[in-house]
Write a structure and sequence with these properties.
- It contains 8 helices and 28 strands.
- It is α/β, with parallel strands linked by helices.
- It folds into 2 domains: about 220 residues, Spore Coat Polysaccharide Biosynthesis Protein SpsA, Chain A; about 100 residues, 3 Solenoid (UDP N-Acetylglucosamine Acyltransferase, domain 1).
- Strands 5-4-1-6-11-8-12 form a 7-stranded mixed beta sheet, sandwiched between helices. Strands 14-17-20-23-26 form a 5-stranded parallel beta sheet, with no helix packed on it.
Length: about 350
Amino acid sequence: MYVLVKGVIVVGRGSLGHRPARGASTIPALEPVANRPIVQHVLDAFRAASVSGVIIAGEADTLMAVRKCLSGCGDGVDVARLEYAVCEPVLDLGATLRSVAPLVGDAPCVLQPADGLLGEPVGSLLQSLAHGSPDLILPVADLTETLDSGDRDPTGSAWNGSSRHQNATGELAVFGPGSLARAIGVLEPMERADLALIAERLAADGGSVRFQLIESWRRYSGNGSDLLELNRVALDGLTADVRPSLRGVNRIEGRVCIHPTASARDSVIVGPTVIGEGASVENAYIGPYTSVGAGARVAGAEIERSIISPGASVMHVGGRLVSSLVGRNARVFRDFSLPRAMRLWVGDGDEVALC
């Protein structure tokens, strides 16, 4: 594997129809999963893969918002070492590649959207660079239907130059040494492009394009199911961190991370689970793949595979919450007053399932 691999993270704003799932940001990459913005998890994955330098590309105001967010995150993010490339518009991959090319130079690079997570280490993609140094590696979710049945190598199947692999993500890519500049060269000046077009042009120009099988890839498209899946992917990499004093008053199983300022009492907490700064858990069951945000409160409730956002409270709910999103400062509680009835405050586009 090459040592000096650059990372390019592309940050975009939501579409006109995008509605932040929990009101956190109009920038999808800043939506929190496992109590941290998605883009921060991307940076963690790059750091774990020993990516030598990271370039964040996007529109100017978007980059300012991302930098501000990351500056307040801490947790190993060295904002001073990040580079930024302004491109307009960000949805045009050709413009994005032209803007980052001077910073990448001839180094190999991995290209990834800031609002998506790979379900495996990024290093698994970079290892493919050692097999013949292809110009372009396109991750795919399934290699059972390949374009070229007779041409295979350790990275997967080769691009046959005539059609597009139906299972390619169209969002992730790895460029070999010097190949980013070559990819720009096969495009017409100012031509709008996507990865499939670039792959076709490179193949027609005699370049080497390969597919790489990946376990999973999920990107946030504005719906809650995406966030819950991204939360699962992020929590799979969680490192346990629980104060010994909390183990004596709770039953804690698996990989659980509880912030030093959070409190937990008389509860069962099963990992992977993260409980954020200043959060409170009491007489509760917190099941696997659950994130409890900063300042949130859970009491007398059972929660599993869910996201409880900062400042929210879930109190004495009659049934177990599963695969649920509770927004910032929202309240979910059981009202014991008479007459008994269900009272709901549901906003535009929200979803409530009564079971």
